[in-house]
Request: fold
Amino acid sequence: MDARDAELKRELDATLRARRELGEDYDSALVESFLEKVDQRIDGAVERRVRRQFAEQQMVSARDSRGPRATDTFGERFGFGIVSLVLAVPLSAIGGGVADLPGLLAAWAGIVGVNVVQAARTNPGLFRGRGPRGTD
Reply:
């Protein structure tokens, strides 16, 4: 039993003692008084919970707004793909001309790496596993 329950129990005991002293004529007034105190307790508890949940929601939205924004528009993806292909031609020529096949492979590894990073940035759950098979 916490302090609020003990205080409410004291209030109930005091109401019952007052009923014994005052008689049945004051029953409705005593009951209404006690119920008013209970209502105040409930209202206070509900208000605290609502404030706590509101604060938690504000914290979550504040954290989400500070995170990186994923802009997954078609134009951005298309533009990035075009730029990658346009830059792939001279990078392949330079890598292949300077270091033959290893240079060409290194250039394409870099191109693929940049595109993988871009895909992961614009689609946050893209490379996450789906979990064990058979759970879908």
